[in-house]
TrEMBL record:
It holds the Pfam family DAP_epimerase. It comes from the Bacteria. The keyword Isomerase applies. It comes from Alkaliphilus peptidifermentans DSM 18978. Its main location: cytoplasm. Gene3D superfamilies: Diaminopimelate Epimerase, Chain A, domain 1 (3.10.310.10). SUPFAM superfamilies: Diaminopimelate epimerase-like. Its EC number is 5.1.1.7. Pathway: Amino-acid biosynthesis; L-lysine biosynthesis via DAP pathway; DL-2,6-diaminopimelate from LL-2,6-diaminopimelate: step 1/1. It is found in: Cytoplasm. This is Diaminopimelate epimerase. Keywords: Amino-acid biosynthesis, Cytoplasm, Isomerase, Lysine biosynthesis. It catalyses: (2S,6S)-2,6-diaminopimelate = meso-2,6-diaminopimelate.
Length: 282
């Protein structure tokens, strides 16, 4: 069986996107994700997205997202920007402002175009959730903000929130790949995170600029993570360490996060095509 696909990226976070009508087998999406996302034996990507019809009157389309390891995720920030570009450029949605149904809720997106193609997408990411039971994190307090985690004798001050998916944020003055790649997978799988967690290490440069590196649950070290960047900015703002508009530096480029008066956050960043083709499934 052959499946038409498009490969896209948002700030270096790359994805395979297909239409439900081309592969209407949801029970096989997880297996397909592991195959098509494999960087040696497949096309290679951080995740697979499927464009599905929405049954909600409030949404134009539904996004289903799988990590490269085949695990289902409720939300992907960079992914939803690419998903938005795909459905607009392919004529599935014609409005420049529309709603997308996700397991994390219905999200509103706005597109900016150049030559009738999307080049920037703004997503209202909603509000971060602090309640430990909702994230989930095993903790009896009101929130899990600036709590100590000890890993192999090293103590981290960590904060964990739900931004569609669980995110743990550690602010540091020294940010490097080796630290993220070593401690990221350990923290991801700690027993206090029953559904695992994404792990973000961040350096606050000043009130308007943050540098972030992320270890993604189900995908590993990535060049960018939209929900991670949003979580970092939300926590930094909650702690009074940044302003309402933050430029975020990531390995794959830059994203802009705006924090609204009601606590909701908007993420703006690029979405770009890489290639398209046909993937063969036996």
């Amino acid at each position: 069986m052959s499946i038409p696909f498009k490969k896209m990226h948002g700030a270096g976070n790359d994805f395979i996107i297909i239409r439900y009508q081309d592969y209407p087998f949801p029970e096989k999406f997880s297996e397909l994700a592991t195959q098509v996302c494999h960087r040696n034996f497949g096309v290679g990507a951080d995740g697979l997205m499927v464009v599905c019809p929405s049954n909600l009157d409030s949404a134009s389309v539904r996004m289903v997202y799988y990590n490269s390891d085949g695990s289902l995720a409720s939300m992907c920030g960079n992914g939803i920007r690419c998903f938005t570009k795909f459905v607009f450029d392919e004529g599935i949605v014609s409005s420049k402002c529309f709603n997308i149904e996700t397991p994390a809720g219905v999200l509103t997106v706005d597109v900016k175009t150049a030559n009738e193609k999307v080049n920037l997408v703004k997503v209202n990411m909603g509000k971060m959730i602090l309640e430990p039971q909702a994230i989930p994190v095993v903790y009896d307090g009101e929130n899990f903000i600036e709590k100590k985690l000890e890993i192999e004798g090293k103590v981290f001050e960590a904060s964990t929130v739900l931004m569609g998916v669980p995110h743990t944020v550690i602010f540091t003055e020294e940010l490097n790949d080796d630290t993220v790649k070593y401690y990221g997978p350990i923290i991801e799988k700690l027993d206090i995170f029953p559904e695992k967690t994404n792990v973000n290490f961040a350096k606050i440069i000043d009130g308007n600029n943050i540098w972030v590196k992320t270890w993604e649950r189900g995908a590993g070290f990535t060049l960018a993570c939209g929900t991670g960047v949003t979580s970092v900015c939300g926590i930094a703002h909650y702690l009074g360490r940044v302003n309402d508009e933050i430029n975020v530096i990531i390995d794959g480029g830059r994203l802009l996060i705006t924090i609204n008066e009601d606590g909701s956050m908007e993420m703006e960043g690029p979405a770009e095509d890489i290639c398209k083709g046909v993937f063969f499934v036996v």
